[in-house]
Write a structure and sequence with these properties.
Blueprint lengths: L5 H25 L6 H23 L3 H27 L19 H9 L11 E2 L2 E2 H21 L6
Antiparallel strand pairs: 1-2
Helix pairs in contact: 1-2, 1-5, 2-3, 3-5
Length: 161
């Protein structure tokens, strides 16, 4: 099909990851749509990929290993997105991950009561859509595309350095 150079692939993944993170924060803070806990977890692979690719661009060490780590990270992203999509569609029941809040910041009885009165977003509620697709379904597509590109780059690493 097509062969991208290793640096081109990594820079493309970096750009897609930056767009995904910036979009998620824009939708949350500028548009006011609260994410559920799984939505927050789905951001982790993008942040990790940004860190790894910047690290690679600075140090240029173990590039093939970093590509392998990125493949694993985006496979995780794909799987967690499939699980979240299953919850949205009613295929799976919500797990305890969907209702967890950070209890470490609660230090008094009043703060506990305040946190209990706040509305938490359910993992099955879709609060924002683009072109009729939930952000989770878009994340499935992006994770799949990035994983495909990274596997293709890993398999032809020596040829495309």
């Amino acid at each position: 099909m097509f062969n991208l150079k290793v640096n081109s692939t990594l820079n493309l993944v970096l750009i897609l990851s930056l767009i995904a993170i910036i979009s998620a924060y824009f939708i949350e803070y500028a548009l006011g749509h609260q994410p559920c806990n799984l939505c927050l977890i789905e951001r982790i692979p993008y942040v990790l990929s940004i860190i790894l690719i910047v690290f690679n661009n600075i140090f240029k060490k173990d590039e093939k290993f970093i590509i392998l780590l990125l493949i694993l990270i985006f496979v995780f992203s794909f799987l967690i997105s499939i699980y979240h999509f299953g919850i949205e569609q009613g295929f799976f029941e919500e797990s305890s991950v969907c209702g967890l809040k950070n209890g470490a910041s609660i230090i008094s009885k009043d703060e506990l009561l305040k946190s209990l009165s706040q509305r938490t977003v359910s993992c099955k509620d879709v609060t924002f859509m683009i072109f009729g697709l939930s952000l989770t379904s878009i994340n499935i597509l992006i994770s799949l595309i990035i994983t495909y590109l990274l596997i293709k780059t890993y398999n032809s690493y020596e040829k495309n350095k």
